[in-house]
């Protein structure tokens, strides 16, 4: 698994734990708003945190839809190239 | 100590808000296009205030200001006062598009860009926070010759309501304050006739002052106002009754 994938998984887990929610098993197939106890503001927090941590903003030129962890990892890996 | 950002804090109501918040014990960062003697004096005599040059309405400069101000403050950001605004008068039929574009860019987009950057800080901090948009009674009542200004302030009230809904679950409150006619530089262009007419129609029989507005700001920033969000508080001496 790439470094970016690790960061995304860890930050996602951290956001869920900060809400004092029990963190379910997170896999790359997990969908943020379906399988994980996250809402749209949690997703915004994740994106803002990832921008700070990685210096990458895949949404600079407009919003791109994503649902799962794998899709988000792909967006970051694509923008990092 | 809590950090508050005030846009357009170099003169008029903005400067009054900065001074009031300093007196209330806040750390205050402010910005404007140009530095004034008044804000320069303030900064030179108080280590809890810092002025930055920033063109409100410019998204890139807004992001830079918010980042720099947070680094300077060294304490969590607690609030944003979206105060910067411009007013230009003229009937719309002959009002140049370039003027209304510029006005909306500062008054509405400028506030939106600031709210966006500050909300990102609140999310990163994982803290509650406050956003106060300085609107105007013109936004709900309208005024001849102020169509673009009125639209910008009505838009600001809409922004307030939407952001209140969007961010309430993070204990971030968003409210508008809608002053009536204030005795500031912005109203100094009113003719004597118009000024007298406004005073006559105001139940309190005077124009408002900066000191009439600032206590409402410190109240909305306080813990006591934690359950007030999405509201527009009119402070106008009763003229819109």
From TrEMBL, chain A:
Q: Which PROSITE patterns match?
A: CARRIER
Which sequence ranges are marked TM in the entry? none
Q: Which residues form the Carrier domain?
A: 1-80
- Its name, as the record gives it, is Phosphopantetheine-binding protein
Q: Supply the InterPro entries for this chain.
A: ACP-like_sf (IPR036736), PP-bd_ACP (IPR009081)
Which SUPFAM superfamilies does the record associate with it? ACP-like (SSF47336)
From TrEMBL, chain B:
User: What protein family does this chain belong to?
Assistant: Belongs to the short-chain dehydrogenases/reductases (SDR) family.
Please identify the protein, giving its name as recorded: SDR family oxidoreductase
A single Pfam family it belongs to is adh_short_C2
GO annotations under biological process? Answer: fatty acid elongation
Instruction: Give the keywords, sorted.
Output: Oxidoreductase
Ketoreductase domain ranges (all copies): 2-180
Q: Which residues cross the membrane?
A: none
**GO: which molecular function terms?**
oxidoreductase activity, acting on the CH-OH group of donors, NAD or NADP as acceptor
What InterPro entries does this protein map onto?
KR_dom, NAD(P)-bd_dom_sf, Sc_DH/Rdtase_CS, SDR_fam
